[in-house]
Amino acid sequence: LNHFLRSGEEAGNSFPVVVPCCFETLPAFSSYRGEGAFERDFEAEGDISLVFKGVSHTGRIYVDDKYIGEHYNAYTPFSFVINNLDAGKHHLKVVADNRFSEKSALHVPNDYMTYGGINRGVVLEFLPEAYITRLHAVPELTEKGWNLSIDIDVVGKPSSVYNLSTELCDIVNANERVIIGENGSTLVHFNLNAENVEEWSPENPKLYPIKAVLKDDMGNAVRMTHYPNDELFLDLCDEEGVLVWEENHARGLSEEQMRNPNFEPQEEKVTEEMVDYHINHPCILFWGILNECASDSEYGKSCYAAQYAILRKMDKSRPVSSASCKFFTDICLDLPDIVSYNLYPEWYVQDKTAKEWVEENYNWVQEKTKGAGKPFLITEIGAGAIYGYRSQTHDNWTEEYQAEVLDHQLNAVFSTEGISGVFIWQYCDVRISREWFNIRPRTMNNKGIVDEYRRRKLAYDVVKKIYRSYGNYFE
Ligand code: ADA
């Protein structure tokens, strides 16, 4: 950091210093009263906040030589938000001033020292799309124990919606649905009641951290495909409270492929290893098997029965299911605890509306199969789009068409009484085997609502809006 002084014996010289740093730490300036500039480069991109815990006694802030603002009083923190920084190197200059004058009514010659400089730490925060600027928790002892009256200020894009989860240690928590106001901010107020907590006192200075997290999540569950996944991912789901459908390794195997002599032993092994290694993850809600395999044939059915038996023997605590694409020909629906269908109306199925296709399949299961009355899930729904391909014609593969189809599909699912849940296929675009390319532009499965770089397609906001219109799923 360059500490540049404009007066005194060493005026104009600069010194490398470490912040926090007051002029007075340099012997030549031990009784200096004046201005001094602290400068440094930093790397950032997008929206940032610069938080100054203390600049004495007046601080003027410049970023890339542009005046940002100023603050008076050495002993209180202040911050500035700087938006839309280009990626790369930027320059911060803090001009600190410790002069006594008419302008300063509190910092006057006194029986304590008014130092000059950056007297407390400086923090650079990278801001996401929405963020918390203030959390005030005021405790009050009531007949029911301690009550915390909590105010949280949230800043974000007008009308955007988030889930705010707040936690007082592991004792109590609250989940609030936050809608950002037209002015780009909102105040969330709620109470947390903590019955069994110890009060802070000089003898027992007990502290309870409060954690508030703003989540932009659009659902509460994730379907993993079509194989057991990394434990790291499951650990994160355990911690974040995301429900997981995990399944063994198989996608779209025909009866012929299931008759491969290696199929049974290999599938059995992967199923056993999956349960063995992952049984203790609380996030796993269901075990799945044999996605879209031959559940329309007797031989296929014997394989399904064998796989379900392994799962039930190893873990009696979780329901089992399989995602089917056999529509009106599935003969295995007596076997699982949950009936699961993968449906792509208005994409692969072009001659039906989303509502017709969803209802016809659901009704067939209820009326014609032993799956009747079991919980019914839509385990895949979606359409493809190439990121950045836009057209008013809403042709296949445009972002517009994908958004429109997802809108129809989700509304069809949510308006069909009896359907317990839905998974969108899929979160992000993924690579596929190059040997299997013919219906997949870019040799990718392009049904992501974000692409492989997590860039949002138009469908992202459509999905978010529909999910959020159903309120807070925590309730
Ligand atoms: C199936 C299959 C998925 C994926 C999807 C699609 O339902 O389960 O793995 O291939 O179709 O994108 O067509």
By DSSP, the count of extended strands is 24
What is the overall pLDDT average? Answer: 94
* Strand portion: 25-35%
How does the overall form come out from the CA principal axes?
elongated
Radius of gyration: 30 Å
- State the share of residues found in helices, binned by percent: 10-25%
* End-to-end Cα distance: 51 Å
Oligomer: single chain
- Characterize the main sheet: 7 strands, antiparallel
Q: Any low-confidence stretches, pLDDT <50, length ≥5?
A: 1-6
Would you mind describing this structure in some detail?
The chain has 475 residues and is α/β, with parallel strands linked by helices. It has helices at residues 231-240, 255-258, 263-278, 298-314, 354-368, 399-414, 458-469, and strands spanning 2-5, 14-16, 21-22, 35-52, 58-63, 66-72, 78-97, 117-118, 122-126, 131-142, 145-155, 161-168, 172-179, 185-194, 210-215, 221-223, 243-247, 284-288, 320-324, 338-342, 376-380, 419-422, 430-431, 444-445. Strands 1, 2, 4, 5, 6, 7 and 9 form a 7-stranded antiparallel sheet that branches. A 7-stranded parallel sheet has the order 16-17-18-19-20-21-22, covered by helices on one side. Helix 3 (263-278) packs parallel to helix 4 (298-314), helix 5 runs parallel beside helix 6 (399-414) and helix 6 runs parallel beside helix 7. It is elongated. Residues 1-6 have low confidence and may be disordered. The structure holds alpha-D-galactopyranuronic acid. Residues 225-226, 251, 291-292, 325, 342, 380, 425, 445, 447 line the site of alpha-D-galactopyranuronic acid.
